[in-house]
Amino acid sequence: MYKIMIVEDDKALCTNMNEMLIKWGFDAVAVDNFENITAEFAAKEPHLIIMDVNLPYFDGFYFCNKIREISKVPIVFVSSRDTNMDIIMAMNTGGDDYITKPFSMDILIAKINALLRRAYSYGEQPSDLIECDGVILNLMENTLLYKEDKMELTKNEFKVMLLLMKNRGKTISREKIMRALWDDDNFINDNTLTVNINRLRTKLCDIGLKDYIVTKKGYGYMLL
């Protein structure tokens, strides 16, 4: 079952689209938090997005551009704005189609089905993202995204974040982290781990994530 994420602040229209998508056998999810749609996308992991242009905080073009930094998921714009410049903006920011309001639900469904066939004709694509409270780890690029900031991670920093984010709420022992970091070219001892954790914490603090990694004294680390 394909999951469709609806980014539409008109509640009546959002409800209508939600009902129609469910009727056609889709798993429909609507965005409630319009302040950080990129994080909502990473958390919900949809196969396709229906995106309005006029939204609270930032417009749909802005969020389409941000999502394109981390994913190639199909995006269909729906908007009452119908100028050539709006359509050009939608395509230039990474949109796959543009429908002007008012529109036929049957047309929307047809366009959704066409984009899904095109995007997933060779099977489901595994998620390349992990999200925890608005923090997004990109598994393909070894990068971390939080609000407006995107930072590159070293191999060890990426492995630490991946382990902690996959086990959010659980304390991971220092020994388990050292085993995860240790490979044929990289011997990790207790001191090296401490250096890696401290450098990672400094990077996280620089983008507003102070105390994101919690120390469990005498054992290890965790994300709350």
List keywords for this structure.
transcription regulation, alpha/beta, Sig_transdc_resp-reg_receiver, Arc Repressor Mutant, subunit A, 224 residues, 4-stranded antiparallel sheet, 2 domains, 21% strand, transcription, Rossmann fold
Biggest beta sheet summary:
5 strands, parallel
The run of helices and strands is EHEHEHEHEHEEEEHEHHEE
Would you tell me the structural class of the helices and strands? alpha/beta
Number of helices: 8
Tell me the fraction of residues in β-strands, as a range. Answer: 15-25%
Residues in helix, % = 40-55%
CATH superfamily of the largest domain: Response regulator
The CATH topology of the largest domain corresponds to: Rossmann fold
Can you count the beta strands?
12
Strand order of the largest sheet: 2-1-3-4-5
CATH architecture of the largest domain: 3-Layer(aba) Sandwich
- Oligomerization category of the chains in this entry: single chain
CATH class of the largest domain reads: Alpha Beta
Shape category: elongated
Tell me, rounded to a whole number, the average pLDDT. 90
Low-pLDDT ranges? none
Measured between the Cα atoms of the first and last residue, the distance is 31 Å
Q: What does the radius of gyration come to?
A: 20 Å
How many domains would you count in the coordinates? 2
GO cellular component, one term: protein-DNA complex
InterPro entries: CheY-like_superfamily (IPR011006), OmpR/PhoB-type_DNA-bd (IPR001867), Sig_transdc_resp-reg_C-effctor (IPR016032), Sig_transdc_resp-reg_receiver (IPR001789), WalR-like (IPR039420), WH-like_DNA-bd_sf (IPR036388)
Pfam families: Response_reg, Trans_reg_C
Domain Response regulatory: 3-116
